[in-house]
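Lecture 7 notes: from sequence to structure.
We start with the chain below.
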Amino acid sequence: MATLKVLIFLIFINRCFASHLSEDGRLNFLELATKYGHNAIQYIVNTEDGYILKIFRIPGKRKIPILLMHGLADTSDTWVIRGNSSLAITLANDGYDVWAGNVRGNKYGRNNIYLNPDTDKEFWNFSFHEYGFYDLAAIIDTILNITKVSQINAIGHSQGNAIFYVLCSLKPEYNKKINFLIALAPIAFLQNIKPPLKDIIEISPIINKLSQILNIRELFKKDSVLIDIWQFLCPEPIIGYISCVKSVIFPIAGYDSEELESNFVPTLVGHFPNGVSEKNLYHFAQVSLRRKFAQYDYGENNIAIYNSEEPPQYNLSAVTTKIYLFAGANDKLATLEDVAILREKLPNDEYLLLPRRKMNHADFIWGRHMYEYLFPYIFKVLRNF
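Predicted structure tokens for the same chain:
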């Protein structure tokens, strides 16, 4: 009991002063862009099913806009938290018209015309399917409407690629609206995941049922006890780095302490993880367990929803947009084996295995030296178009 009281007191102090976070860990996208030399603009996107999203733009002289889409439990902030060596700032410095999107449920997407995320559990009834079918479609249309061009270029990370496959397979007309997609750490198939994540996925049906019983719909909510502990503990130079990075992030993403160093953690944990639905995590677990990139499995309700006992698979052969698959040899989430399966399904792709052998899932967005081992390949694609 005494230990619990001490922990509660420490959390209270952390909320009051946020002393453990760096300045960049406390700034939002607009503030970070300003700090690193750019005046960003916020736009509101309304989805077809009532969600309200905030997206951001760093205007540039180049005509074709570049849309950056973040990964799981992340936000648009991920593209700027490395400051001058982050991808969004680097692109903006080179004159590109940079747009950073967000999906429903994260801190920039906790609004709905009809539903309250804090009181209506129906608000959280979504997965990456809705991210692609509704959110990404609305974001792309908003960008095209504002810029008055016919196509965008796109760069995604992890889940931020999967939602493009969802959109372009279910709404094929969007293939013509996307010039190309650079898929960093491409996620779709997840049947070669290694422990410890594999072990968690195997018991995910039990976790899902327990979440339903306990009415847990949202994960990683800001100001929750879990996030308070995360933001208080992780920035500690030694204990925090061992507890949070070496024991949590690296076992899932792949080990690379050279690129995710302890000095960066007080910034990182101010932005990651961010709000996500429990249903989204379970949908990815289903993809892994069923070994199929398919829509959400509602079990006995599939017939009523899909008119089939099995949820439909996403037709990747309909994804005709040019896709550049950038893979990392040390990526424990987007494994080389699973990326190979994706390559077989996509009709218009090119593949690059990054030369850096330690390249893990996180290095694509948070790596300290991305400008050396990643950005030259991104700019090569951009300049070819």
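Points to note: The chain has a mean pLDDT of 95. The chain has one domain: 2-384.
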